[in-house]
Amino acid sequence: MTNFLETERLIIRSWIPERDAEQAFVIYNDPEVTHFLGKASLVTSVESQRQRLIDNIEQWHRRNNGTGSWAIVEKETTTIVGTILLKQLPDKDGLPTQDYEVGWHLRRASWGKGYATEAGQVMLNYGFNVLNLPVINAVVKPENHASIRVTERLGMKPIGRTNKYYGIELLLFQLDAPEE
Ligand SMILES: CC(C)(COP(=O)(O)OP(=O)(O)OC[C@H]1O[C@@H](n2cnc3c(N)ncnc32)[C@H](O)[C@@H]1OP(=O)(O)O)[C@@H](O)C(=O)NCCC(=O)NCCS
């Protein structure tokens, strides 16, 4: 299995549904993790988690534009500690726009270690340097203070509230590609 990206403490790699479903389930079966992600994010069985990973991989293959969601693996323990994603923001009908977002979900036991920021930084670099995106966005529910702090640590600029994506009101953060 080839690693997609690497940081000091983390490996970012593709999901392997057969092998990873149980560890993904630890993340998405936890209402504390899915609280700000919407009800549909809560997974109730390992089997449905496996199917969700399979469906996601198929979706990224269909899009075939370098976007996706990847497993964050802690090097020290080889445990999957979360998900990092870079994808097109959906409009209110769920259709992909031409705006791209970075996103992070960590299992509860791995909060407070800086992993979302570390994985977010390498994903931003990938978006700017490999996908040549001019701007990368993050959208966060106004009450999700932990996620807002991640955008701050990444140097993303607060733009204000928006209704353009997901059919709900969200706070928008942006980072421009570094100047050549
Ligand atoms: C959003 C979420 C990923 C943030 O997790 P987090 O652990 O707070 O963020 P980071 O991984 O960047 O870690 C930063 C924290 O680790 C601490 N930390 C410890 N060691 C660190 C290190 N080496 N480097 C950076 N920060 C470190 C920081 O002080 C900070 O804690 P603080 O906010 O209490 O000051 C997490 O709360 C989560 O998964 N929530 C559920 C899913 C979700 O809502 N996702 C966002 C949707 S928009």
Automatic annotation (TrEMBL):
Coiled coil: none annotated. The keyword Signal does not apply. GO terms for molecular function: acyltransferase activity, transferring groups other than amino-acyl groups. It comes from the Bacteria. Residues 10-178 form the N-acetyltransferase domain. Keywords: Transferase. InterPro entries: Acyl_CoA_acyltransferase, GNAT_dom, N-acetyltransferase. PANTHER family: GNAT FAMILY, PUTATIVE (AFU_ORTHOLOGUE AFUA_3G00765)-RELATED-RELATED, N-ACETYLTRANSFERASE DOMAIN-CONTAINING PROTEIN. This is GCN5-related N-acetyltransferase. It comes from Nostoc punctiforme (strain ATCC 29133 / PCC 73102).
